[in-house]
Amino acid sequence: MEPIIAIVLVLIGYALGSAKLVNQGNEALVERLGRYHRKLRPGLNFIVPLLDQIVMEDTTREQVLDIKPQNVITRDNIYLEVDGVVYWHIKDVEKSFYVIDDLQQGLTTLTTTTLREIIAQNTLEETNASRAEMNRTLLDELNRTTQKWGVEILRVDIQSITPPESVRRSMEEQRAAEIKSRAAILEAEGERQAAIKKAEGTKTSMQIISDALRSNPESKDILRYLVAQDYINASYRLGESQNAKVVFVDPGKGGDMMNELVKEAVTEEDGNGKKSENV
Predict the structure, then answer these.
(1) Which of 2, 23, 83, 92: disulfide with 150, CB 3.0–4.6 Å?
(2) Do residues 147 and 69 share a domain?
(3) pLDDT over 90 (residue 109)
């Protein structure tokens, strides 16, 4: 009876020793007598005890590699502090274990080195303006190397690009100057448009008055009134100006001035090249 019990216990121990459970999202590598034998998939797997050994189990899920701030130099010799993140996953567990000794360290070193090389090819302005393009370039460059490691780089995000304090102040001053320049241009354009509109309005008003005087010569009194009103308004504005000058006009000649203004406003050259007065 005892030998049977011993055999049963040996079989149970063998079964327990040969059964290996691999979690979902992971894969494992088995070596037999020191050489690669096979790959274990998620679920229940069986190996040969004493002959087979699981040497590595790793996840094939997406992982995040945090790139700590790195000091890099641009093509125009500006020192920057750059950091970012790399999203990657193991595509071939066998290559990731046998081709490279320390996968995490290899990815970190490769990313920082490639990042320095890419930024060194750009100026400070190009670096700030083409971050998305640099992300794509970095992604392509990394995948060329990591492919033989059995790793695929999914995304690369350069999170921050920090120039020195002196450069930041210069950039802020430049942006402020550009904003002021654009504001001055817009203000000048607005004043130009306003002057054009005012001139067009004055021209239209004079045309209306001229047409009215030609059709109704008795309306010259209205014109005298309008001219006098403009004269008074101009005098008020002149008096309110800080650079105003006092201009004296002989009151006795005020009426003559009005008449001359009216005559000039209503005198036109007819279609035959002759002048005709409507007053």
Answers:
(1) 92
(2) yes
(3) yes
Is the pLDDT confidence value at 18 over 50?
Answer: yes
State pLDDT tens for residues 123-164: 888 888 888 899 999 999 999 999 999 999 999 999 888 886
31 with 67, same domain: the answer is: no
In a domain, 279, yes or no: no
Question: What is the four-CA torsion angle of 203, 208, 209, 215, rounded to 10 degrees?
Answer: 140
Highest mean pLDDT among 6-20, 48-62, 182-196: 48-62
Identify the helix (H) or strand (E) that includes residue 155: strand 151-162
Q: Which two tokens stand for residue 190?
A: 């607005």
CATH number at residue 129: 3.30.479.30
Is the Cβ–Cβ distance between 210 and 266 less than 8 Å?
yes
Tokens 């005709």 appear where?
A: 276
Judge if 19 and 74 occupy the same domain.
Answer: no
Find the angle CA(239)-CA(241)-CA(244) to the nearest 5 degrees.
65
Give the chain's domain count: 3
**83 touches 71 (CB < 8 A):** no
Q: Are residues 158 and 100 in the same domain?
A: yes
Q: Are residues 136 and 202 in the same domain?
A: no
Is there a single domain that holds both residue 86 and residue 132?
Answer: yes
Report the sign of the C-alpha dihedral through residues 148, 110, 132, 157, in that order: positive
Domain that holds residue 16: 2-59
- 231-268 pLDDT tens trace: 666 665 556 555 555 555 554 455 555 555 545 544 54
Pairing state between β 63-73 and 79-90: antiparallel
Q: What is the DSSP string of 95-119?
A: HHHHT-S-HHHHHHHHHHHHHHHHH
